[in-house]
Amino acid sequence: MAAVDLEKPFDYVVVGGGTAGLVIANRLSEDSDVRVLVIEAGADRSSDPLVLCPGLVAGLYGKDEYDWNFTSTPQPTLNNRVINQARGKMLGGSSALNFLMLLYPSKGNIDAWAVLGNEGWDFDSLAPYLRKFATVHTPPQSSKDLCGLTYHNEDLAKGDGPIHVTFSEGYNVTNQAWLKTFAGQGLEVTTDPRDGRALGAFQNQASIDPVTHTRSFAATGYYNPEVAKRSNLVVLTETLVEKIVFDTTGDEPVATGVEILTKDGEKKQISANLEVILSAGTLQSPQILELSGIGSKDILEKHNIPVIVENPSVGENVQDHPIVCQSFEVADTTPSGDVLRDPNVLNALVGMYQASGAGPLGQSTISVAYSPLVDGSGIVSPEAKKELLASHEHTLTTPDAQAIRKLVESPDEATFQFLLFPTQVSIPDVPKSMAEYILPVLPENYITVMTILNHPFSRGSVHISGPDIHAAPVWDPKYNSNLLDMELLARGVEFVERLVDKSTPFGKLLKDGGKRQPEGLVATDLEKAKEIVRKRQISVFHVSGSCAMKPREQGGVVDARLRVYGTKRLRVVDASVFPLEPVGNIQSVVYAVAEKAADLIKEDRKSL
Ligand SMILES: Cc1cc2nc3c(=O)[nH]c(=O)nc-3n(C[C@H](O)[C@H](O)[C@H](O)COP(=O)(O)OP(=O)(O)OC[C@H]3O[C@@H](n4cnc5c(N)ncnc54)[C@H](O)[C@@H]3O)c2cc1C
């Protein structure tokens, strides 16, 4: 790459070349008249086989060159365990190390964003952007044969966006049995889940290129070789943004650029003529705001940071999907990813993948189900649901909580997401990295059923731990701090017993009298189910909301055009702006929000 002139001002400076940051950079630099700079802390690893090969993702976690590898504070409702939070530290951010599941949000969920005071952010307004980011491929015949996919609507979301989205060729009897078992519980999907309304089990898509069998993510999609040729787009990797620089001489502070630390340890200032766009992710966008003087006065003063804008909501409102992982030993003939523990098997599969992209390493075979509130007796009646929510009435006073209550009460919205995961999951009290959750340590072969709460009521926080960018922020998710979350989650765990019962197609694939994790614990009643939650709940890695888009007096950090309150020429665009956590896996919403934000920025340029 030719030497970049950093002295010459850029028009837009994007902080963080992750999932959202690269969307913004791509779309803004479509206009050759504007100069765009992206500054990314990690390196460009978009041709690294560990990043590209879907089945080798575990090799990325905990390694400094790929993963920020954050850890929560001890969680009182989880036996004081700490929870790992992998975050991508490379071009493409967390899209470079995620599990590639591609799901779409529900209508009611995104409509609630508008209800919370964000004009223009209802489902129908976001829907075009949910189409824009992806090229959705026709399912292979083998996946139709095994999983039906009768609900898949070919015309719904074809698109020609940069991210490839596809069904797998490698589904097996476990996926098939999963779908049948949910259907037996009255939970069969009949409409395309991408249309904003779906309850039941379905086979989700994945962000994998079906031709190359490689990960399709922000760096390969939005910063592909064609885009990289643009002379008006500069991507600076292995460079840390330390803070945003403001001109404070006017009535409101104006963002004029950033201060960076290069990989050679040199500090520099870079100017932005038009805007600074912060896209450092949910745990680091608030960190950069606080280090720049935007946040709670108490926190900033504690670290001797001059206050530029006082806003105690920065770093608050953090939401995350809690996930409870129960592993079940499989019968000898049932496929399990745990066989990869044998180096001979792994080497043979790597050889197969290298030769032609064939085999399980190029696939994602996780299956999904959405359900309303369920428990050990099946679907909970509307009256019982109302009664449970009413018994926690006193905690449901905020606009957020009221919006979530409506979603839980709605017959169309999914309270739970269940996942079928093809390997065992282990939960150490103090995991060194995400890899410790998913690498097989037990000698038996397992598959895992995961219970996820789509709409947690609890809210956590993330704040700086010192005045320096190198000090990791303190992330306290405060899981189940609203006890209703524990009540709901435990009911979902009770329902799992219905899925693994010997009489179901799924239960028949498990070993008769086989082991389960947590060992010996069966959710025969609510108390036992809660014990399972305490032992086996971790994060789905969907942290969001720390710079929430909301009215300022209701805890907002950015307005409905994603501009930071109290400033000029500064926006946040990443998962941190979500006012409410979306249903299911959230990368589709991050891409869509960033696509919409790019249009807002382009529109606003006309009036600058
Ligand atoms: C392990 C894991 C599994 C997941 N699985 C799925 C899945 O299967 N399906 C799904 O839909 N979602 C999944 N997700 C969630 C999804 O990938 C993320 O929510 C999404 O990618 C977040 O995008 P973002 O733009 O907000 O942040 P990121 O993509 O994380 O981008 C932030 C970027 O900012 C950079 N940065 C941070 N601080 C600085 C600084 N000071 N200076 C310069 N750069 C900085 C970071 O290095 C990073 O590149 C998963 C996430 C993880 C971690």
What level of helicity do the residues show?
A: 25-40%
Share of β-strand residues: 15-25%
Tally of DSSP β-strands? 28
Instruction: Give the count of helical stretches.
Output: 17
What structural class do the secondary elements suggest?
Answer: alpha+beta
Question: Taking Cα atoms only, what radius of gyration do you get, to the nearest Å?
Answer: 23 Å
Give the integer mean of the pLDDT values.
96
N- to C-terminal distance: 32 Å
Shape: globular
Major sheet attributes: 7 strands, mixed
**Spans where pLDDT lies below 50 across 5 or more residues:** none
**Hetero ligands:** flavin-adenine dinucleotide
Domain Glucose-methanol-choline oxidoreductase N-terminal: 281-295
Protein name: GMC oxidoreductase
Family: Belongs to the GMC oxidoreductase family.
Report on this model:
The protein is an alpha+beta fold. Strands 1, 2, 12, 13, 14, 15 and 28 form a seven-stranded mixed beta sheet that branches. Strands 8, 18, 19, 22, 23, 26 and 27 form a seven-stranded antiparallel beta sheet that branches. The protein has a two-stranded antiparallel ribbon with strand order 3-4. The longest helix is centred in the C-terminal third of the chain and has 19 residues, at 587-605. The radius of gyration is 23 Å and the shape is globular. The chain starts with 9 loop residues before the first strand and ends with a helix. The structure holds flavin-adenine dinucleotide.
Summarize the structure.
It is built from 17 helices and 28 strands.
